[in-house]
Amino acid sequence: MALEGGMSCVKYLMFCFNLLFAITGLIILIVGIRAEINSYPYMNFTDENFYKFAPIVLIIVGIIVFIVAFFGCCGAVKENHCMIITFSVFLLIIFVAELAVGIAGYMKHTDLEDSVMRNLNASITQYPVDKNVQKTIDIIQTDLQCCGINSPADWADHGLPIPSTCCSAQEINDGVVAACTENSTNFHSKGCLTKLVVHMKDIGMVLAGVGVGIALVQLLGVIFACCLARSIRSQYETV
């Protein structure tokens, strides 16, 4: 049975909303994948599970969004009460998940510096003997263009030579790469602690912003769906 009046408008608004909903799903998926790629090399230096699981949660949510958008579109076009209710329930669950990721993103970054500091101190002593630690620290010093924890002096404080990754684009003389020293032209003079914390906080704030922002948009979808489902049910009850 066709809907009349204002509820017919809600029906088409909801259909348009689902197109937007599918786009937000794509945004969530892309943000989740990028956050996972950008944070993965540094996971060993934080104890905060948020940075390990939040990107994965967003990736899963992004995939589910496409399925939910299908139920919403079909339910709106066919005026199917069951599909609309299914859409509303899934959308509400997604809303809660995204809101949780967003709130966690704003809260968890406050303890990040202590966690990173503790893990960097533990890792730098393992640099000469643990290949995995060596690889991770080299990635950090190369990507963030930093050296040591608070400063390059941390290497000497631990009785270790300055790694080659504390320099960028070292000169090659007679096939031999020049040693990296504090006098090298492309020497990284800043410590990694501050840069790594800022990098991880930026990831957390992006996840938080996307989670809360899109969750609020999707809350409108729950309202539209509930209004449409109630209208469809009342139309059939009056027949």
Automatic annotation (TrEMBL):
CDD domains named among the record's database cross-references: tetraspanin_LEL
Main localization (coarse):
membrane
Matching entries from PROSITE patterns are given as: TM4_1
What Gene3D superfamilies does the entry give? Tetraspanin
Q: Which family does it belong to?
A: Belongs to the tetraspanin (TM4SF) family.
Instruction: Give the record's keywords alphabetically.
Output: Disulfide bond, Membrane, Transmembrane, Transmembrane helix
Which residues pair up as cystines?
Answer: 146-180, 147-167
GO annotations of cellular component type: plasma membrane
Q: Which InterPro entries match?
A: Tetraspanin/Peripherin (IPR018499), Tetraspanin_animals (IPR000301), Tetraspanin_CS (IPR018503), Tetraspanin_EC2_sf (IPR008952)
Q: Where in the cell is it found?
A: Membrane
TM segment ranges:
12-33, 53-77, 84-107, 203-229
Q: What is this protein called?
A: Tetraspanin
Q: How does it sit in the membrane?
A: Multi-pass membrane protein
